[in-house]
Design brief:
alpha+beta
């Protein structure tokens, strides 16, 4: 019984043992398979970039696959975009890096072309210049139209008087920046120039009407050797007046047996450098209530050279006259070795209001001389009997009481001003 029991136990033990290894065998067979599977996927774990690239590639291809366009259209779009990007990049590169080189080459080419043109066209250039000069001369002739003046001439044989009438002008040349002029006419006889007449200034008018008459007392026998000069000027307040044009009439060519009236074209005025004596700037101020006249000698410019060294020692003398008689006289300090002296010296005179209309202020610029007498450079006057700028300056002073009025005056020869002072006003 016991033996039989042992056998049964051993059989059962074998049976169980035989059964137990059979169950883990499949587990041991599966374990190598499970280890081999991760071994196949080890390389991607060590390269995450490659895995991302594949993932993005697959995603991109999936997106393209869902587009409604065919693949060839998508390829064409990609090609066009790449071409545009390439063109833009090429242009930017040229603009940034190729500009300097290009400009140098262009300059060299232009310089070479100019040299060739100069060498080849040397002979033709002279002909062209001559042609241009001829054309320029023609244009200058056309531009020499300065306007025209209407005047009248008559002679009074009884009183031995030459009567000159300045009537009007037309189409005068514009001398001011605004395209206009302020014309007036100066009338005198050559060669003595002892007496000069001036019309009133016509403001901003290229076709002024004067209607003024001037008289020269001269014997008929002496008239044949004279030349009547009619000069048209453009008035300028602070500088020398510009000559617009002039008319010269030899009196021996005029029949004075009867009055004449005609138009003449203005011609260019001949420059007489020797007669330019300079200019002086004067300020006038009159206070009627106090009867006080203040004269300020401001400055002078372009004075005539009187000394051997080409300079002068100028000073200004002021003479106050009433009815042709000297009342007072004063003078400035001497400015050494200059043709453009600056004085800025004021002088006051007591003149009652009832006498101011009959007063004359005579201004003379002298060259100081230590050894001999002082030489007069030039002269001008204002006030009673003055014409042109002298009359205008005096009138503006009276029209603006208590206010200084400055004006440039052209210096004239001393003999000419002295003769004008002796002539009674018209």
């Amino acid at each position: 019984m016991y033996t039989a029991g042992m056998r049964m136990a051993s059989v059962q033990f074998r049976t169980r043992r035989a059964a137990e290894p059979a169950e883990p065998e499949p587990e041991h067979e599966k374990e190598p398979e499970q280890v081999e599977e991760p071994a196949a996927h080890v390389p991607p774990a060590h390269h995450p970039g490659h895995h991302n690239y594949d993932h993005m590639k697959n995603k991109f291809m999936n997106e393209i696959g869902h587009l409604p366009l065919p693949m060839w259209a998508v390829g064409a779009i990609v090609v066009v975009v790449l071409v545009l990007v390439g063109c833009c990049t090429f242009c930017l590169f040229k603009k940034c890096f190729g500009k300097k080189k290009k400009t140098k080459k262009v300059r060299e080419r232009k310089a070479g072309r100019r040299r060739k043109a100069d060498n080849e066209g040397g002979g033709e250039g002279g002909d062209k210049e001559e042609g241009d000069k001829k054309e320029g001369e023609g244009e200058e002739k056309e531009q020499e139209k300065l306007g025209k003046l209407e005047f009248s001439l008559d002679y009074n044989f009884t009183d031995a008087q030459l009567i000159v009438g300045i009537l009007q002008a037309q189409d005068l040349a514009a001398m001011d920046m605004g395209g206009t002029s302020d014309p007036y006419v100066k009338v005198y006889l050559l060669p003595d120039k002892k007496k000069k007449h001036e019309t009133k200034v016509q403001r901003k008018n290229l076709c002024p009407v004067f209607n003024e008459t001037f008289i020269f007392k001269i014997p008929y026998t002496e008239l044949g050797g004279k030349i009547l000069v009619l000069q048209v000027f453009d008035f300028d307040r602070f500088s020398k007046h510009d000559v617009i044009g002039e008319i010269k009439i030899p009196m021996n060519s005029v029949d004075l047996g009867q009055p004449m009236q005609c138009w003449r074209d203005l011609e260019n005025s001949e420059k007489e450098e020797a007669e330019k004596l300079g200019d002086v700037c004067i300020s006038l101020r009159y206070v009627p209530t106090a009867g006080k006249l203040t004269i300020n000698i401001m400055e002078a410019k372009n004075l005539k050279k009187m000394d051997v060294g080409g300079l002068s020692d100028p000073f200004v003398k002021i003479v106050l006259q009433h009815n042709g008689k000297r009342i007072k006289k004063k003078k400035t300090t001497v400015k050494k070795n200059t043709l453009n002296p600056y004085f800025n010296e004021s002088f006051s005179f007591e003149i009652p209001f009832e006498q101011i209309q009959k007063v004359q202020v005579v201004i003379t610029v002298y060259d100081y001389d230590k050894l001999g007498s002082n030489d007069a450079i030039g002269k001008t006057f204002m006030g009673y009997g003055a014409t042109g700028v002298g009359l205008k300056h005096w009138s503006e002073m009276l029209a603006n009481p208590r206010r200084p009025v400055a004006q440039w005056h052209v210096l004239c020869p001393e003999e000419e001003v002295d003769a004008a002072l002796k002539v009674p006003p018209r």
